[in-house]
Design a protein that fits this description.
Structural class: alpha+beta
Distance between the termini: 26 Å
Strand content: 15-25%
Number of helices: 2
Order of helices and strands: EEHEEH
Strand order of the largest sheet: 2-1-3-4
Shape: globular
Largest sheet: 4 strands, antiparallel
C-alpha cells in the first residue's frame, strides 16, 4: 500500500522549517536511511496519520527502518 507523505524539513534559511511533499513511502524510506528524516521529524499523511502531524518515532514501521539503518542511534 502506498501513501503520499509530507515532512517538515529542519534547518534551512534562518532555521525556518519547510513542508516537503507530497512524496512516496519509498522516498520517505530513502530519506530515513540517509538520516535526513530522523525520529524527531514531523510526518503527515492523509492515509496513515489522518492528516495529523506526528513525530516519526510514533510510526512503528518507520522506526523499525530507522533502527535497521542507524543501529548506533538511540532514536
Amino acid at each position: 500500500m502506498s501513501a503520499d507523505w509530507f515532512f517538515i524539513q529542519k534547518g534551512g534559511f534562518f532555521r525556518r522549517r519547510k513542508r516537503v511533499g507530497p512524496i512516496s513511502e519509498q522516498n520517505i524510506l530513502i530519506r530515513i536511511e540517509s538520516g535526513e528524516i530522523d525520529p524527531d521529524t514531523l510526518l503527515s499523511s492523509d492515509a496513515k496519520t489522518h492528516g495529523h502531524w506526528v513525530e516519526m518515532r510514533t510510526i512503528k514501521p518507520a522506526m523499525k527502518h530507522w533502527k535497521t539503518h542507524h543501529p548506533q542511534s538511540k532514536g
